[in-house]
Amino acid sequence: MALVLLTALASGCGGGSNSAAETTTRHRLYPWLKGPTREFLIRGDDNSVQIFGREATKAEREQASRVIQAWMKARASQNWKKDCSYLSRRYIHSLVPEDAEQVTHGRIKTCPQALAYFGHEASGSYKNNLTGPIDSLRVEEGRGYAQYHGNDGHDWILNVELENGRWLVAIASPIGRSS
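^ thats the sequence. predicted structure below, dont judge the formating
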């Protein structure tokens, strides 16, 4: 499971690229980067999420916010069945047959069972640190990154995927950003 999370972090947050855009300082990005993603730029740090794709429309961001808010509530209450209803099929496929079934030698066969089995190892803290809608949604070709300011004073990123016209969560836990 740790490998899945590390892979998601590396691929989802620009872990291996050294493009000029990613190493550009906040000062250079700020004038041309439009929209709410500007709030999440960190000087001299990896800003690949902030420049990924395009800023979503208000309607896309609102739809993703509703899903993420409901997912956070289900996750915080450890309602694994409801939690799984907000996860993308691709993520569930990596969680269940690729991880849980292998680790448990076939005993775990469903998403709710996998989340219960892996617990905090997969999801980190179950605390709902989202106080309202997400602040930014960067999207491209059916993938995206929701960004929000948590009620804990930290900024967070959440991988999302578009399925049948609906944005769904594509990772077990938000990724914390440091400033």
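The first strand starts at residue 54 and ends at 55.
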